[in-house]
Automatic annotation (TrEMBL):
Name by which UniProt lists this protein: Endolytic murein transglycosylase
Annotated family: Belongs to the transglycosylase MltG family.
TM ranges: 29-52
Encoding gene, per UniProt annotation: mltG
Presence of the UniProt keyword Protein biosynthesis in the record: no
Membrane topology listed for this record: Single-pass membrane protein
Residues flagged as site, Important for catalytic activity: E260
Electron transport listed as a keyword: no
Length: 376
């Protein structure tokens, strides 16, 4: 028989053995986990290195295929990288973009380039800096806020086409159908409503456009303007849908804001006024719609003008007019979708260009008497 002391000693020894085994097991688990993490990390790093290394190499070193790539005016590194990847000149746009950044490469020229999949990144960069620069035979600038008729006038001044020829083409059912088929999310059946004056009013984005030919077709002149509108509106599509609007309604509201507001800050506030008035069941009562409805510019509108019966005149209709009254820029589209919270129901532009806002008619009338009526 073992004594109590021996039993006690044996218990201590067994406890020590158990602790040793536990510690050993713990070390093994830690070792296995650490090894696994290191292996995974090493594998990930190796994978990334191999991926980047591959992306830095030519797409096809043995290819002699010549691919024409056009880099538009104003393209940044991200746009250029995306264009090159889409044409199969580079393997990965993101890697190329960071490669440019690391090498501090800039000053790329817009142009039409003949490139091959066998070129190295450095050869591509050199070509983009010294290649054939686009020589625009025709340049047309469309300022923000122009009506379609005014855009037609601008084009007519720079080409051999008459204003009528341009408007006939842009308003033709065949051309509109072509546009709708190309951009079904942008140009919908809304543009074909009975009361619409010009179906594509508001869909020609204001910007500067360059053309390789001196006298391209009317379609070739107009389509880039619609292409640009589609490009601009794409990021807004989900919000437009979530807010229960249509693209046509947003472009319509944006055109009213464009015509009324002198700057970005006032565009947003004026947008809030329009929202507030619609919520209160009030007419929008904006003067540019009267001018658009009448089809002629007037320095000062009369009481009779305000009563002019037309679907576009927001003094005689409720809510938005049937369609846009001008072609607007990004800031007006942004303001139309994201107005600030205000309680304003009226605004008044003074002869000095300041915009005064009011929460009630009494204050609005006071501003009118001070800045408009007393100056007549």
């Amino acid at each position: 028989m073992t004594t109590k002391e021996e039993e006690k000693n044996n218990g201590k020894e067994n406890a020590m053995v158990d602790k040793y085994k536990e510690a050993k097991l713990t070390r093994r688990i830690v070792f296995i986990i650490t090894s696994t993490i290191l292996l995974l990390l090493a594998g990930t790093i190796t994978g990334v290195v191999l991926f980047v290394s591959s992306a830095l190499k030519p797409v096809d070193p043995d290819s002699n295929e010549r691919i024409e790539v056009e880099i538009p005016l104003g393209s940044g590194s991200s746009t250029i990288a995306q264009i090159l990847e889409e044409h199969g000149i580079i393997k990965n746009a993101t890697v190329f973009k960071y490669y440019l950044k690391l090498k501090n490469e800039t000053d790329f020229q817009a142009g039409t380039y003949s490139l091959t999949p066998s070129m190295t990144l450095d050869e591509i960069i050199a070509s983009l800096k010294t290649g054939k620069v686009i020589k625009n035979e025709l340049v047309i600038t469309i300022p923000e806020g122009l009506h379609l008729k005014e855009i037609a006038e601008q084009i007519a001044k720079k080409t051999d086409y008459s204003e009528k020829e341009i408007l006939d083409k842009v308003n033709s059912v065949t051309f509109i159908q072509t546009v709708r088929e190309k951009y079904p999310q942008l140009v919908t059946e809304d543009v074909m409503q009975e009361d619409i004056k010009y179906p594509l009013e508001g869909y020609l984005f204001p910007a500067t456009y360059g053309y390789d030919e001196k006298n391209p077709s009317i379609e070739e002149i107009i389509m880039p303007m619609i292409d640009k509108t589609n490009e601009v509106i794409q990021p807004y599509l989900s919000d437009i849908q979530n807010k229960g609007f249509t693209v046509h309604e947003v472009l319509t509201l944006a055109s009213l804001i464009e015509e009324e507001a002198p700057d970005e800050e006032n565009r947003k506030i004026i947008s809030s006024v329009f929202y507030n008035r619609m919520e209160e069941g009030m007419g929008l009562e904006t003067d540019p719609t009267v001018i658009y409805a009448m089809g002629e510019h007037k320095e000062r509108l009369t009481f009779k003008d305000y009563q002019y019966q037309d679907p576009y005149n927001t003094y005689v209709i409720e809510g938005l007019p049937p369609g846009p009254i001008a072609n607007c820029g990004v800031s007006s589209i942004d303001a139309a979708l994201y107005p600030p919270n205000t309680d304003y129901l009226f605004f008044l532009a003074t002869p000095e260009g300041e915009v005064l806002y009011s929460e009630n008619y009494e204050q609005h009338q006071k501003y009118y008497d001070e800045h408009i009526a007393n100056r007549k």
